[in-house]
């Protein structure tokens, strides 16, 4: 990062197809999967854009928040945590911005929350970086988080946005213990199935049977994503369509779509990178340094 050079590390076990959890490959993985992973990553890190969404709307961006506690904080029980924001654009590219370490972790709720000032500074930094990289004027900003977004956090984010920009706070998480849907026959629910529960809550099946490919790349009954529009106003169906589209923006996979949108699906990995080596003085914002 300090020299502005993205790297692609290739382990010998990957080339030998001995695999590993870090690559998503096994000894039975086809060579085409290895070729896809490596060529796609190298193409992206070299400055290319592997693909973009045909449904992307200009002037709309999506920001996912990642909290990560350092090993020392976990060991000692300290509340210290780092928050990072990942912004994804209509072009398919993204930027990462690191916030300040602070007492964001709560032992009672086991969740992390920023105060209003920290929330304002984090989103302000993200939007400033976006402008520095030549970003176009924004009309809508969607905030994605796994945990509930407090009123104080949202007001902090709101104060960082121009009044002309619509800001919507959304909780996106897997509902492993909630609703399940079954279809007659042997195939599971269709990928993209949408069930509206209220004006602000819906279920979206990001994993499921894909008619065009005639397959389901899972092992169990697919769990839905629960989507809650907690702050601001937005069309719930449009929100679900956007989130389904964001499951296709992971350039580091060999699937048609992932189980989670890239805004929250990569949050743990990005947070780990940001806190693992605090001596790095220059943290580049481009997402290609984090996959």
Question: Which features does this protein show?
Answer:
Nucleotidyltransferase, domain 5; 8-stranded mixed sheet; 2 domains; 291 residues; alpha+beta; globular
Low-confidence stretches: none
Number of domains: 2
Structural class: alpha+beta
Radius of gyration: 19 Å
Question: Helix count?
Answer: 8
**CATH class (first level) name of the largest domain:** Alpha Beta
- Bulk shape: globular
Number of strands: 10
CATH superfamily membership of the largest domain, which one? Ribonuclease H-like superfamily/Ribonuclease H
Q: Sketch the topology as an H/E string, one letter per element.
A: HHEHEEEEHEHEEEEHHH
Give the overall average pLDDT.
85
State the major sheet. 8 strands, mixed
CATH topology of the largest domain: Nucleotidyltransferase, domain 5
Helical content class: 25-40%
- From the 3D coordinates, which CATH architecture of the largest domain would you assign? 2-Layer Sandwich
N-C termini distance: 13 Å
Order of strands across the main sheet: 3-2-1-6-7-10-9-8
In words, what does this structure look like?
The protein has two domains: 1-48, no CATH class; 51-168 and 234-289, 2-Layer Sandwich (Nucleotidyltransferase, domain 5). Helices cover 26% and strands 19% of the residues. It has helices at 12-15, 31-45, 71-76, 116-132, 151-160, 236-246, 262-265, 267-276; strands spanning 60-68, 82-88, 94-98, 105-106, 111-112, 140-145, 166-174, 194-196, 201-204, 225-231. Strand 6 (140-145), helix 5 (151-160) and strand 7 (166-174) form a beta-alpha-beta unit. Helix 4 runs parallel beside helix 5 (151-160). The protein is globular.
């Amino acid at each position: 990062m300090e020299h502005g050079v993205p790297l692609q590390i290739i382990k010998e076990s990957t080339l030998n197809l001995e695999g590993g959890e870090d690559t998503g490959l096994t000894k039975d993985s086809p060579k085409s999967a290895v070729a896809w992973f490596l060529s796609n990553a190298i193409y992206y890190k070299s400055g290319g854009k592997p693909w973009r969404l045909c449904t992307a709307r200009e002037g709309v961006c999506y920001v996912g928040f990642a909290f990560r506690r350092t090993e020392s904080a976990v060991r000692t029980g300290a509340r210290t945590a780092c928050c990072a924001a990942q912004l994804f654009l209509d072009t398919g590219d993204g930027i990462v911005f690191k916030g300040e370490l602070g007492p964001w972790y709560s032992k009672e709720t086991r969740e992390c929350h920023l105060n209003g000032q920290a929330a304002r500074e984090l989103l302000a930094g993200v939007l400033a970086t976006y402008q520095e990289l030549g970003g176009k004027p924004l009309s809508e900003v969607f905030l994605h988080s796994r945990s509930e977004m407090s009123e104080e956090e949202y007001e902090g984010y709101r104060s960082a946005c121009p009044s002309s920009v619509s800001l919507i706070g959304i909780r996106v998480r897997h509902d492993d213990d909630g609703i399940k849907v079954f279809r007659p026959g042997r195939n599971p629910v269709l990928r993209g199935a949408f069930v509206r529960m209220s004006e602000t809550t819906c279920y979206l099946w990001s994993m499921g049977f894909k008619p065009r490919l005639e397959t389901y790349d899972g092992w169990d009954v697919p769990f839905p994503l629960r989507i809650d529009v907690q702050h601001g106003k937005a069309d719930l169906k449009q929100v679900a369509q956007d989130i389904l589209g964001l499951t296709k923006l992971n350039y580091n996979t060999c699937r048609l779509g992932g189980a989670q949108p890239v805004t929250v699906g990569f949050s743990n990995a990005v947070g780990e990178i940001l806190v693992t080596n605090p001596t790095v003085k220059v943290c580049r914002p481009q997402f290609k340094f984090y996959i």
